[in-house]
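Hi there. Long-time user, first ticket. I'm pasting a complex I've been working with (about 619 residues overall). I'd like to know whether the download I got is complete or cut off, because the file seemed smaller than I expected. Thanks.
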Amino acid sequence: MTTRGTWLGGLAVAAILLPLAVPHPFVLTIATQALIWALLASSWDLLSGYAGQVSFGHAGFFVLGGYTAAITSKSLGLSAWLGVWLGALLAAVVGLAVGFPALRLRGHYLALITLGFAEILRLVAQNWLSLTGGPFGIYGYATFSGLPADPLLRRQALYVVVASLFAMAVIGERTPAGKAFRAIREDELLAATLGIHTTRYKLLAFALSSGFAGLAGTLYAYYVLLVSPTLASPATTALVIGMAVFGGLGTIWGPAAGALLLYGVNEALRFVGVVYNLIVVGLIIMTFVIFVPEGLAGVVRRRPAPRVRRSPPARSTDASRSIGG
Amino acid sequence: MWESLLEFLVQGIILGGLYALFAVGLTLIFGVLEVINIAHGEFFALGGYLVFAAVVLLGLRPVVGIVAASLGAFAVGLAVYPLLLAPLRRRLGRRPYGALYLVLTLGLSTFMQNGLLAVAGGEYLQVPPHVAGILDLSFTALSYQRILVFVVAMALLAGLFAFLLLHRQGLAVRAVAQNPEAAQAMGINLGRIFSLTIALGVGLAGAGGALIAPQFNVYPAVGLPLTIKAFAITILGGMGNLLGALVASLVVGVTESLAVMVIPSEWQNLIAFAVMVLVLLVRPQGLLGRAVVR
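Hi, the file is complete. Here it is re-exported in full:
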C-alpha cells in the first residue's frame, strides 16, 4: 500500500475510533474542527497543488458554503441535511464562475483575482445586514436534525470529511482528470499539445476544489453554529495555504496532515496566547516554502532510504516546484 | 451641489495621494523582481508603530518620527531579499516561480502582522496630528494634516522618480527591471539592486503609514485593506508601471470619494475590487500598459 493510502487509511480509522476511544467533548470538538480545516486545506491542494492554479480566495469559497448553510437553515428553515449540499453546490458553481477568468490569467493575476473575490464576499457578508447579519454574523440556527442530543454521538461530520479526503485523493491520483491536472501544472502548453482539453480540466479543478471548500464551510457552519465575516479574511486563506505548504503540496493527505498538526499546535498555543499561533504559522510558511518545499509529505516519503541503487530522479513531477509560473 | 462635488474631488485627490505612495512602491517591487509583496501593508503598519513610538512614547518631534519611521521600514526592507527571496530564488534556479513568492510574502505578512500584535497589543493607538490647524477654502475645510500627507507623498514620489531617472543606482534599478541578465552582464550586482528596490518600496509604505497615522490610528492590521486596494490600483495602472500606478491611485481615490454621493459609504471598498476584476477580465495589461509577453 502506498504512503498516501496508509496515511489516509490511518486517518480514517482514527477519525472513526476517536469518539469511542476518547469520549471527551473537548477532544472531539477539537478533532472535528481540525478535520474540517483538513478538508479545506486539501481542497486548496486539489486546485493549487495538483492543477497548479494558485488560489488566494479559498476563504471565500469556505465562507460562501458556511453562509449558504446558515441562511438556508435560519431564514428558509431548511434542514441542515439539505443545507450541507446546497452550500457545497453553490460554492462549486461560483468556483466555476471564478474559474473562467483563470482560463486567461495565470500566476500573479489569478492569485489577485481570487483574493479580490474573497474580499468582495467578505464585504458583502459584512454589509448586507438583512441577509447576512452584518459584522456579527449569523447564529441561532438548527444543526442536523434527528441525531442524538448527546454531542459525543454527533460525529457525522468526521465521516463526511474523511470520505471527501478519500474522494479527492482518488480524483488526484487514480482518475484521468487527476492526470490531466498534473499535466497542466507541469506544462500547460505541452498538456494542450498532447490533446488534453486544458480549459475543461481547469474549470473542473476549480469547481471540484471550491465545492469541497464550500462543503468544509457548511460543516463548519453546522458544527460551530456561528458564521461571521472575519472567516473570509485573508488570514483564513493564509492559514489554509500555510497548512498545505506545511503538509506538502500535491498530495492531498499532506495538507490534511499539515492542517491537523497546525490546528493541534494552534490549540496547544491557545494556552500560551492566541497571538503566537499565527506568528508560528507565518514562520512555518516562510521556512517551508524556502527550505522544505516538499513539506512533511516529502520528509515522510524520503525517510525509508531505498537499498537499491537509485535511478536518476524523474524530472520534477513535484508540485512544490511547479505551481504558479 | 457643485460645492460638495468640489469638496469630494479634493478629498479624493488627497486620498489618491496616499494610495499612490503605497501603490507605486508595490508596483516598483513587482516591476523589478516580479514579486507581489503581500506584506506591503505590514510595512505601512510598521511605519505607524514607529511614528507612535517616536512621537507619543519618546516625545520627539513629528518630523523626526516620520523620518525615523521611513528609515526603519527601509532598513527592515533591506533584509527581505537576502533573508527570504534570495534563498527561494537559489532553490528554484531558472524555473518559473510566480505564485511561490506570493505564498512566501503571505507568510511574511502573517508573521509581521502578528509579531506587531504580540509586541504592541491589538489596541487602536492614537497619534496626535503632525500639524495642527485647518485651511478654510470657501467650499470646504481641509486640515493641514491632510494637506501634509498629500504634499509629502507627492514630494517623496517626485524624489523617487528623480532617483530612478538621474541617479546611477536608480538607472541600475531600471536596467534590472528591463532585462536582468543584460544588467548583470553590465556589472550590476543584482542582489544589491533587488534589496535596494524592496527597501525603497516598503520604505515608501512605511512613510505613508507614519504620515497617515493620526487619521487612521495604528493597529496591526491597519495596512491590510490598503494592500488589497493597492493590488487593484497596480493592476489598473498596469503591473510594474510606476506612472500608471500614480494615475490609477488618483483615479481610484477620486472615484471612491465621489461615489459616496451615490452609494452608501460602507460599499466604498467594493469599488476598487470590482474595477480590478473588470480590468483583469477586459484589459489585463492595465489602462496605461502595453501588452507584454514575458
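A couple of notes from our side: Chain B touches chain A through 47 residues (CB under 8 Å). Residues 16-222 of chain B form one domain.
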